[in-house]
Task: inverse folding
């Protein structure tokens, strides 16, 4: 079944045509890579899919429904997560906290029961921590869980950002240049990790 359908998408910034006639289909469970030179419009396409930009032409459909009027948070709720070309982690939080926060935000927490210290919130907190640790383990980030994200090398930070995206229980993850700055061996290893992530967490991926 087609999960993501992009049809004849165009994006203009004033006189500059960043995207023109872009169409693609991504099926459930698929990992699809797009290639293009600098300035080809890869990040712009991701911005159109995640809702940071509205395409000036064409349509984008997720699980059969148009995304046209959906703001970014609704797309996230419907199952689209992403990483950024320029890393956007919470630098002064630990790796573990970077993953737990989106799990909480995804709706397992209830501020009132938290404030009252009700048992449910303890349960939710434990569940969030367990899921975060499972993701960190698959991404081979165990040695870094308590380190501040901002102190880690870029390659490790990229994996943390992927982990944070997966923490939101997405159906689709958009990865903007996850291999930037990696050598050939590290890139091959990342590819292996992505395949494991797909199997373990049942996510499709679009990467550039
Ligand atoms: N918000 C914006 N306003 C104006 N122009 C933009 C905007 N975003 C992107 N562009 C322009 O659109 C074109 C495509 O940029 P984009 O960043 O999508 O390319 P890219 O394929 O991701 O490139 P790179 O490989 O360098 O990451 C470029 O000419 C860029 O300058
Ligand atoms: Mg880009």
Result:
């Amino acid at each position: 079944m087609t999960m993501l359908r992009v049809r004849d998408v165009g994006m203009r910034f004033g006189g500059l045509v960043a995207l023109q006639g872009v169409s693609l289909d991504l099926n459930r469970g698929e990992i699809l890579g797009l290639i293009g030179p600098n300035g080809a419009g890869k990040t712009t396409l991701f911005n159109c899919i995640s809702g940071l930009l509205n395409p000036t032409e064409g349509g984008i459909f997720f699980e059969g429904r148009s995304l046209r009027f959906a703001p970014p948070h609704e797309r996230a709720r419907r199952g689209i997560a992403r990483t950024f070309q320029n890393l956007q982690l919470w630098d002064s939080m630990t790796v573990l906290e970077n993953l737990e926060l989106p799990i909480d935000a995804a709706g397992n927490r209830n501020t009132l029961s938290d404030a009252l210290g009700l048992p449910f919130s303890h349960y939710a907190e434990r569940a969030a921590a367990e899921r975060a640790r499972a993701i960190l383990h698959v991404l081979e980030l165990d040695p870094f869980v308590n380190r501040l994200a901002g102190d880690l090398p870029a390659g490790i930070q990229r994996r943390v950002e992927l982990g944070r995206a997966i923490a939101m229980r997405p159906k689709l993850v958009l990865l903007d240049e996850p291999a930037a700055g990696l050598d050939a061996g590290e890139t091959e290893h990342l590819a292996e990790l992505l395949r494991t992530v797909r199997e373990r967490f049942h996510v499709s991926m679009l990467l550039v």
